[in-house]
């Protein structure tokens, strides 16, 4: 057994931990792929096989997913601090394996909703943990790059899988072919996590020893209730990140649940719908590779504010458009706006939260952020049932613009070198 005196020193930084960091990027791509299996096919499955005509009813699977993922995110952070990161990651993969099988065999819409409860737990545990582990490894100065690579891998996998499942559905039907891809992702993710991923909690402890807190009053260990209050409303930067993240995922819930139906009513083919469903997360994924490290250089706040306002403009464009070409342009703008925000918000949380309670802060932030899926499903479904899909898109566009203005007014710059 290695004594403390001879144990190798824990080193921080992406370059110093390139192999385990790269493996976690690959694992998160598989997490994203499991989510991506639904983006193109499930809204059409609701309409064509289960004959759900009310938008609110059709979006119940997004409500189930978002609510479950939001709650699981909170516990993922707490459990990662208490039991370590790797056990939480493994639990996420074990829970994800039944999801594609339940969708393939579903005799009723209730099975789809139940599958999305499990998918929410899977994403809450597995995606949250890969975020926390990369923040552990990257250290304080390259969090933007770390989060850019993490979220890029996840959402490029969402995009690629959305495109692939659209093609599979067009060639082989809505079930089972598209969901066999998700089953392969789950098996591979579990195997890699079990046999190759290493624990990273010691990296967080090493950083805690030299951490410079934004606010000395928030230094050191805090109770979970205190952390929840800071991230939810007390601490200006953390609370601003939480509200912007929630509105961002409200947008994504709208895009996931209603955009394929909007495109279908305009007469687009399955292949075109799949291409649009893939384009937005593809730009989102690729853009994060640029915006994440840019926030390390120029600061977090400019990208958060500009990204929210760009999303608002893109959503307004979706509501006003009626052709494949126009929707292609708005999908690109929506992806760019989301890419500017997504890794930057996570990096801002990592900047402000002390390493001793950072995993729980990430969990609370992701609770609010992914709660946006549930809020978006309810809001978009009700407005769409009352006034149509386009009206729902206009409402969400307005909320997104307000969110950007709130972040501009309340948030301060969080990057250690830019403060």
TrEMBL record:
Transmembrane spans: 12-35, 55-76, 88-105, 111-132, 152-170, 176-197, 303-325, 331-353, 389-409
Matching CDD domains: MFS_MdtG_SLC18_like
Keywords: Cell membrane, Membrane, Transmembrane, Transmembrane helix, Transport
The species this protein was found in: Couchioplanes caeruleus subsp. caeruleus
Membrane topology recorded in Swiss-Prot or TrEMBL: Multi-pass membrane protein
Location within or outside the cell: Cell membrane
Protein name: MFS transporter
Keyword check for Membrane: yes
Domain Major facilitator superfamily (MFS) profile: 237-419
Gene Ontology CC entries for this record: plasma membrane
Entry-linked InterPro entries: MFS, MFS_dom, MFS_trans_sf, MFS_Transporters
GO molecular function, one term: transmembrane transporter activity
Entry keyword annotation includes Transmembrane: yes
